[in-house]
Amino acid sequence: MVAGYQVNHQLLKRAVEIYNWLDLQVRNNSELAGKCNVCGKCCDFDGPAPGPEQGFGHRLFVTPPELMYLAANLGTENVKAMPTSRCPYNIGGKCTVYKYRFAGCRIFCCRADTDFQSRLSESALKKFKSICTEFRIPYRYSDLATALNRFAG
Ligand code: SF4
Ligand code: SF4
User: Fold this and answer.
1) 3-state secondary structure of 108
2) pLDDT attached to residue 7
3) For a FRET experiment, which of 10, 12, 56, 105 has its CA 20 to 30 Å from that of 73?
4) Angstrom distance (rounded) from CA 56 to CA 111
5) What is the Cα–Cα distance from 138 to 136, expressed in whole angstroms?
6) Which ligand neighbours the alpha carbon of 92 most closely?
7) Does the Cβ of 38 fall within 6 Å of ligand 2?
8) Distance CA 134, CA 15 (A)
9) pLDDT digits (tens, 9 = 90+) for 116-149
10) 95 - beta bridge partners?
11) What single-letter DSSP state applies at residue 59?
12) Phi, psi dihedrals of residue 62, rounded to the nearest 5°
């Protein structure tokens, strides 16, 4: 677990605002955002090739405020390590932390317009970076396994 971890309610409020903003962008741009059939395949980050039927070779990067938000809602003791290529919160193909999932999970869709996704990712990243600056948290942009293993280790 991260040493000195403390819940900062203002920080959590800001994270919720970003997630709400992101969800709104996705809802208001449904053509570009793509339709997800919730198969859960993209939660395995070592899939063989891009495509909804085959898995994905993509990566999910997360920032400290996103992990803090997850930990505050699940309880820090329930933050799981990630020993395999599959997100540990994907169980039986379903996301078990859907309400608290990361920005990248909200943005990514295998059927989305890639420019739209990139723009949204950049905007979200800037917002999370500004939270780090405001609350004096060291900024890190880590792939999911590194971030979860560091937090839970
Ligand atoms: S948090 Fe949920 S949506 Fe995101 S990678 Fe994990 S299981 Fe998938
Ligand atoms: S984005 Fe694609 S691969 Fe990921 S859960 Fe949705 S349909 Fe499945």
Assistant:
1) coil
2) 72
3) 56
4) 12
5) 6
6) 1
7) yes
8) 12
9) 999 999 999 999 999 999 999 999 999 999 999 9
10) 90
11) -
12) -130, 160
